[in-house]
Specification:
The structure holds two protein chains of two kinds. Chain A is mostly helical. Chain A is built from 26 helices and six strands. Chain A has a domain of 139 residues. Chain A has a two-stranded antiparallel ribbon with strand order 1-2. A two-stranded antiparallel sheet of chain A has the order 3-4. The two termini of chain A are 20 Å apart. By secondary structure, chain B is an alpha/beta fold. Chain B is built from eleven helices and 16 strands. Chain B has an eight-stranded mixed β-sheet, sandwiched between helices. Chain B starts with 12 loop residues before the first helix and ends in a 14-residue tail after the last strand. Classes of the chains: A mainly alpha, B alpha/beta.
Chain lengths: 531, 423
Amino acid sequence: MPGPRIFSLSVLMLVSSLTHAGDKPLRQVIDAEIKAGWQKEKVAPAARSSDSVFLRRVYLDLVGVIPSYDETTTFLKDADSQKRQKVIDKLLADPRYGPQQAHYWDLVLFGRRPQNIFDTRKHDSFTKWMAGEFVKNEPYDRIVKKMLSAEEEGSEMFYVQYRNAPEEAATAVARVFLGTQLQCARCHDHPFEHWTQKDFFGMAGFFVRLVVTDNGGPEGKRKFKIGEKSTGDVLFAASVKDLKPGQKGDPVKPKFLGGAELKEPEIPKGFKEPPLKGGVAPPKPSFSRKEKLAEWVVAKENPYFAKALANRIWSQFMGRGFVHPVDDLGSEQKVPSHPALLKAIAERLIEHKFDLKLAIREIVNSDAYQIGDTGPATEAMPTMYERARVRPLSVEELMPSLRVATAYDPAWMKNTGDYSEYFMRYFGEPNDGQGHFQGSLSEHLFLNNAPMIRQFAQPRKGNLADTLVTMKAPWEEKVERMFLSVLSRTPTAVERERFVKHLSGDAKIAPQLVEEAIWVLLSCSEFRFNR
Amino acid sequence: MFPTNTTGEHLGRRAFLKGALATAGGMAVANWGGLFNSQTIAQEAARQNKRCILLWANGGASQIDTFDMKPGRPTGGPFRPIQSNVNGIQVCEYLPLMARMTDKLAIIRSMRTQSPDHPDGIYHMHTCYKQNDRMPHPEIGAMIAKYLGNPEADLPSFVRMGSTGNAGSGYLGPRFEPFHIGQDGRLPYFSEPSVTPQVQERRTDLLNFMEREHAREHRAEAFESHRLAEQRALRLMRARQVFNTNEEWPRARDRYGNSTFGRGCFMARKLIEAGVPFVEVGQENYDSHADNFTVHKANMDVLDPAWSGLLQDLQERNLLANTLVVWMGEVGRTPYINNRAGRDHFIRAWTIVLAGGGVRGGQAYGSTDRDGREVVDNPVTEGDLFATIYTALGINPRVRHYVGARPIWATPEGSRPVRALLS
């Protein structure tokens, strides 16, 4: 894999003069910078995406599901030259937009195996809260501030992951919101970066007083509250070996990452912690460290915050962050692939008060986002963005997409459920820890043999297979409908011929042949990925 | 016997050469590749035949009642030692068959480990990392599958039976996930074809057509990984007869003992012979907080023929020299006998046994004091054990992977292979 390139000074200067060109729409800045990168690195970009490829991509990215047959055909027929821009606006206003963005952030903040898993395995209240924030397009800095203050219902689940684990909370906050990897400095001063153990434990100091109170309720709906004590410090010893029995190290004052120590008032003499109880709102501390931290994280002056978001949101839609992995911006070892563009996006985010919809609208309207998905590059996420990124559909995207593709009536799930445990098990984590896709044996055994997959391909009144079996039309037309429904595109001439041959093979078993053909389209790699 | 497993390798010759050539060219075999790009072909070829079987004593076996006996001491318990076929090494009277195999065994009597309970111990002894490390560490089976497995083999590279590990393939990803079968060859859900061979063939043809068409202009590795996984699934379904031992078992059970665990050991031998690089077989019920001696006698009655039968079988088929057989559980058991005639968990001084490929047999390594309470010499940690196993199998114990931005090694810093154990 080619590493990030270092830009020559002249290019940097050229580029920064471009970004200072005032109110040029961000999408144009993006395209100019990406193009400059291609020229500099002499890479040949793919052609612009076809309408079908674009439509499927933007549906998955913005609303988390492929377009339906009707949505696809309407879009493809539309002769309006502004139709891409229009569909983007429509999707940004779609009720599914909020939940899809919440889903993306859920994977960032919790992943498939959240910490303190007993309390957090199910955290529907959080995703619901998050979706609400995206629906009303709450500015990102305010969302994060609320999450770190943990006072709104649902928002507290972020901290519940780090119950009694202030060091883990520090690591997560630094990584996700500040794009900085601190964890190495937990056990030793960071080997390659300037972070020391004092930096690490200084950050942990903001979380050491947090208390999670459990207010009961069934799993997935359990109510927690985040309280904060007025006393307690992180204890740190440079060398554990030198400690005498009973000694636990010296208290470390909270310290903002790369900044000053927190100034806090003395605790009054004779102060006693009020008791914390489940079911009762925890009392406010005399001085809240978490409040100070939340303010500092999202402050305009914080050098890490906007940049971390710029890199994150770029990677969400473009595959690879300018710095990769996406949450390693603090590294001095890593030069961004497009430093000026990273800076420009971060500046625009600040300028527009962290309006996420505005930033997303600009990115997905860019030519860079709308690039084609073909070409010689073998990387899933090409460094210079010369071809669209390829990422697997998440379970949350795959399941509704299977339903939309095959016109599956959600009412049919009433008695059986949606089998999401199965899908999670077989499609849940198809990567190698580095974000590379890995197809698994069990995923394909499931695809081949599970009734939960077969139900989408078998004829059932009103679904795609049924329509194809019963509709009076030539096979060519049926094949076209099948492709548009599942792959959001028309078949090529070769594909049409091959599928017609398959489907018209034996009239006696036509429903069976239709089922097979639909299964093939659902199982092929074109369907498995967002590209 | 099935024609597929007499050749010793369940993969085509062309497939094997393809794998080797890709490595010779010095290129990484993409993300799904199990090969290691910085190695020479010679090392690669040597590793191709290395295998490992882990016999897992679930719950934690008592070292004092098996391989580190303390006759006459208050901690010794009622079992008597018998002389093994190696001078100076005695084993429990209920392991008479293993006593005749001791020249093959490297008995580590000085395990000193860190995780005292079941879930954490099972995790730790399968990954050599602590569970609360919050890193998704892969199990030893996944690591071995990655470095010793052939990406083009019909069978999965990591097969297990019974109660075994709890970490899965972790950061190595689903390519190396464990394939869990019953000791009797029962396959996991969805492994049995759901359609007739005719339908399967017809739709596979159509799918292959689609994939070929798509691959023309779509070259991303992810697509290839998806296609290869589909092929592996189909190959597995075709090769699944390997897991059927119904005809062979009636004869084999005289050797392995008529038990579920024995049958699992027999299956392990079959799979190793068919080219699977890692097989784990779990034996239940070692967790004898009460009635330790009844429990252990019953377990050894099962273990003794199964384990010795496996070693003998491997040897007769010239597989033992390349197959490392590890016997261990998550903890040892206390020297102290509690008031329910039980022994509790113990991690300060306990025993693990290695045999076969890459280790020097006929030795007891390390020792404990006369009551078995402390290690007297040569303590061995989880990391040391894993480093020894990986070295014996030709895997670099300090091979490095990345999880996000963070580097992580196959064994923790400071782990060292125990040279005296290696042949």
